[in-house]
Amino acid sequence: MGLQEHYSQFHPLLFSIAYRMLGTVSDAEDIVQDVYVHAEEITIDHVQNKKAYLCKMVTNRCIDHLKSAGRKREFYTGPWLPEPLIFTENDPETKVVNEEMISFAFLLLLEKLKPMERAVFILREVLDYDYRTIAQIVNRSESNCRKIFSRSKNKFPLKNEEDQAFLDPNKDEIIQKFVLALHHGQTQTIEKLLCDDVTLYSDGGGKVYAALKPVHSKAQVVRFIGFLLAQNHSEEKPAFVKMVNVNGQTGLLVNGEDDVKTVICFHVENNQIANIYIVRNPEKLQHVFLHAD
Predict the structure, then answer these.
(1) Beta strands of the chain (E only): which ranges?
(2) Which residues of the chain are in CATH 3.10.450.50 domains?
(3) Which carries the bigger pLDDT value, residue 21 or residue 259?
(4) What is the pLDDT of residue 98?
(5) pLDDT tens track for 113-152
């Protein structure tokens, strides 16, 4: 099997690792491409387990990238949010994506982990790799990987049978009701769909309008969304709103009067919206422009 065949076979997996590690589509794609270019230069025909070898290359490049990216994020204007992934029905990545493990809520929790912790956690918890394989990928001993995973899991509250924070079977219906109420200006209905401690995060990167701090309380969240939509809507050029699959879940793509695109996604708990994530930074939305058509 040639390198091109390996690229087609492993690209969705390698991209899913890089995207979860970095939270950025562009950097994840760049790293995967760079790995294949490097693999072609050194010739990996002699490598017995090419999948593990490529995973190792991608993971280690992501760890190095995170060490430098962390410094840049210290000076980021306003809340930092991941770059949204807009999925279409035939995207190959959907075959290796667990919607719970790629949601904004999950990716933001990953931000609490150090680069090595993040790598081990993703390889074990998300991809279900055994510790022997993980140890080979991250160049650590099996016992050390077990300790790293245990430490990272303690920082990372995942769902159990009694906690449905990451899996609400009615989330799509809740979001659809929210969008409909928003369209008709039904403020009371919107507030009923929000948790009492709802939080809205908006990422403009200092380039377009966004809240510089998280927005709390139902009233403040409704007011902010209303203002944002009004700012990007007029009778001459109404805002274009489309329901799309954002990171495996129902979300919104908004193209406003000023041609600034906005992606909105939600975190639903117990039949109510707990968090709203709004990405407006143009640099983070270049890859989703084609979905607005």
Answers:
(1) 86-87, 194-203, 215-216, 240-246, 249-255, 261-269, 272-279
(2) 171-292
(3) 21
(4) 58
(5) 999 999 999 999 988 999 999 999 999 999 999 999 999 9
Q: How many CB atoms lie within 10 A of CB 234?
A: 12
Given 3.20.20.70, 1.20.140.160, 3.30.2090.10, 3.40.50.720, which CATH number is that of 3-154?
A: 1.20.140.160
> Edge-to-edge, what's the strand order for the sheet holding 215-216?
86-87, 240-246, 249-255, 261-269, 272-279, 194-203, 215-216
Q: How far apart are CA 239 and CA 124, in angstroms?
A: 43
* Rounded Cα–Cα distance for residues 272 and 259 (Å): 31
* CB-based contacts of 232-239 (< 8 A; 24+ apart in sequence): 232/256, 232/257, 232/258, 232/260, 232/262, 233/257
**What global pTM score does this model have?**
0.86
User: What residue spans in the chain does CATH classification 1.20.140.160 cover?
Assistant: 3-154
Q: How open is the CA angle 188-191-193, to the nearest 5 degrees?
A: 115
User: What region does 268 belong to: left with phi over 0, alpha with psi -120 to 50, or beta?
Assistant: beta
Q: Please tell me what DSSP assigns to residue 102.
A: S
3-state secondary structure of 35: helix
Mean pLDDT of the chain: 84
- The phi-psi region of residue 217 (left if phi > 0; otherwise alpha if psi is between -120 and 50; otherwise beta) is left
**Topology at the third CATH level for domain 171-292:** Nuclear Transport Factor 2; Chain: A, (3.10.450)
